[in-house]
Every structure is written in C-alpha cells, then in structure tokens.
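Tokens in:
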C-alpha cells in the first residue's frame, strides 16, 4: 500500500471516529440530558468544529492525488495497446505494477486479462506485486497459488520478491503466516525478503521483528538487514519509525545502501522533521540527492518542487539515467505542475514505463 493511501485511510478512519463521537454527543443533548450526564452543548459545538476542519483537510489531500479511475484509464489504455503482442509482455508488466493496492472490479478485470495472454507466467509476478495492501479472498487465492506452485518449487529471489512486495501493508494473521513461510525458505539469501513484506506495517509485532533482526544480526550481512529495514518503514510517521531512522543513520554513517533507503523511506512525509533528515542525508554526501528526490512521491510543496527542478536540470545536461528517480517523485500527484513535468520528461525521451511510474508509482524498484 502506498504511503499516500495509508495516510488517507488512517485519516478517514479518524474522521469516522470523530463523526461517531459527535453524533453520540448530539443525541444526548437532543434528549435533554444535563451536562454531567453527557448533554454538553459546548462539547457538541467543539466536536462539530473539529469535524468540519478534518473533513476539509481530508478533502484537500484526496483532490491533490490522481483519482483512482484516472489511473485505471491510463493503465487500461496501455494494457489494451500491448495485450495481444507476446513480444511486449514486459510492457504489460509495467502497467500491472500501477494497479498496486487497487481492489476495484475494473482493476481485477485487467489482472485477469493479463493472465490470459500468451505469456501468463511472466506476468504472474506483476499481478502478485499489484496485490499490495489487498487482504481479500480473491487476492489470497492468487498468493496461495503462487506460493504452492512457484515459490516452493523454485525459491529464487525472482519468485520470492513479488510475493513479499504483495504483502506490504497487511497485518492480518494470514499475512504473518505467509511471511513466516517466506522467512523459512531454504536459501539464506532469501531470508531478508520477509522484512520487505512488512512495508507500511506499523504494528507492535512488526516493530518487535525489525528490532530483533537489527540487534541479533539474523542475516549474515547486518548492513543488508539495515537497508531492508529502511525499506520496510517507507512513509511511516510514527515515533518508532523516526527512532529507527535515527538509529540507522547513526550506526551506518554514509553507507550508500542504508542512507539511500532511509531517504526513500521519507516518501509522502512533508513535515519539518522529514525535511531536516533529508538535509542531514544530503550534508553527508551529495550522492544521495537522487534518492532524496525519489522519496518525494506524494509531496506537492514548493521545497519538493525546487528539488525536482534541480534534478531535471541535471537530466537536461545529459544524465538521462535519473529520469526514473524523477518519475518516482511525481507518483500520484494531480497538480498542473506535476502534469507539466511529465510532459517535459516525455519531451526529454522518458520511456512509457517512467511516465506510468510518475502517475501510479511502482513498488518493485524501491528494492534497488
């Protein structure tokens, strides 16, 4: 689940709880109960004011992002363009990545259409990756099928990575059982992947596992663990997430694999605390600049745009390899400025893949 989806979902749930509290307080006033019994008119007015402000703030956040239907329009057009040509299966894979976290019937029809192509095996991994954040029975049928028929027989990273990515955002018992199965794969080099599967999970159980892995060095290369733990806290704004970032910055000073992933873990975070950490990472070494920009997905502030414009100037000077990082920084943004940047990227030769990433994001390459 993308951080912007996670944040909007959390704020919507908080809005619902506030609404329920308001209704309860209002009903007590309506019944004529005295203040000591819950009939507090001042409290009702206060709750009403808070509810109105929360609603406006949530509405502003939602309109800042590209509507789900618009994302589906883009993906559907792309899929229909290449679905009947087996030589372009890799292009369909790019489009399927853009369906990440979308559980609508229309999205499922696209997944099923991909699995009916001449090369469904190649596209199966992309379908599994697109299940990120989905805990429905439909999603689990595909995960279980992939684990039994693919991962158990061929436990290679190319098969395990999609399954791990597709578990991001899930804190259910079923998800934890699947993580345990991934962790217990025979090849040692695969064990770190269950950490990646905990992306966007902020529960106590997830934190116990992160901290245990970091302390015990359950994987041979501790720096490798640190980098994957950084990947697992993308977009998390809890105090524990910030403490973990601080700990990793202190213990792995200047290590590119760790610092780059910490920078990317700030995706969607526009607070002073996030910008202060970005500044510290850049002060350590300018080599982290493109990773910092990559972590600006979902942020439409002036500071974010100054960085994007600076990276685009570098691209204009001939470093086209950074187009992918710039694309990530535009993920989900629906502002006029974001669409203008996509147009400029296209004019500079950005591939269809990068434009798709700039619209709907892509979970896979966070592991790079």
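Residues out:
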């Amino acid at each position: 689940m993308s951080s912007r989806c996670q944040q909007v979902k959390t704020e919507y749930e908080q809005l619902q709880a506030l609404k329920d509290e308001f209704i309860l307080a209002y009903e007590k006033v309506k019944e004529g109960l005295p203040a000591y019994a819950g009939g507090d008119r001042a409290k009702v007015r206060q709750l009403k004011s808070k509810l109105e402000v929360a609603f406006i703030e949530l509405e502003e956040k939602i309109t800042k992002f590209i509507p789900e239907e618009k994302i589906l329009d883009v993906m559907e057009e792309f899929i229909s363009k290449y679905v009947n040509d087996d030589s372009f299966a890799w292009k369909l894979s790019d489009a399927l990545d853009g369906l990440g976290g979308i559980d609508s019937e229309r999205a499922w029809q696209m997944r099923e259409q991909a699995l009916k192509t001449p090369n469904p095996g190649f596209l199966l991994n992309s379908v599994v990756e697109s299940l990120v954040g989905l805990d429905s029975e439909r999603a689990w049928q595909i995960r279980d099928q992939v684990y039994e028929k693919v991962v158990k027989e061929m436990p290679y990273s190319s098969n395990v990575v999609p399954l791990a990515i597709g578990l991001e955002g899930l804190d259910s018992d079923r998800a934890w059982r699947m993580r345990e199965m991934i962790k217990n794969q025979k090849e040692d080099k695969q064990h770190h992947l269950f950490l990646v599967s905990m992306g966007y999970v902020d529960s106590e159980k997830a934190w116990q596992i992160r901290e245990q892995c970091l302390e015990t060095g359950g994987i041979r290369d501790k720096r490798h663990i640190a980098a994957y733990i950084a990947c697992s806290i993308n977009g998390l704004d809890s105090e524990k997430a910030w403490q973990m970032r601080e700990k990793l910055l202190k213990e792995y000073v200047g290590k590119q694999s760790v610092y780059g992933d910490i920078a990317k873990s700030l995706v969607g975070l526009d607070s002073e605390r996030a910008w202060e950490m970005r500044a510290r990472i850049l002060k350590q070494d300018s080599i982290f600049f493109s990773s910092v920009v990559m972590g600006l997905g979902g942020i439409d502030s002036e500071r974010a745009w100054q960085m994007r414009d600076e990276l685009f100037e570098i691209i204009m000077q001939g470093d086209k390899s950074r187009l992918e990082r710039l694309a990530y920084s535009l993920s989900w943004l629906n502002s006029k400025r974001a669409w203008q940047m996509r147009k400029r990227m296209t004019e500079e030769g950005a591939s269809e893949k990068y434009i798709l990433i700039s619209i709907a994001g892509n979970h896979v390459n966070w592991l790079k």
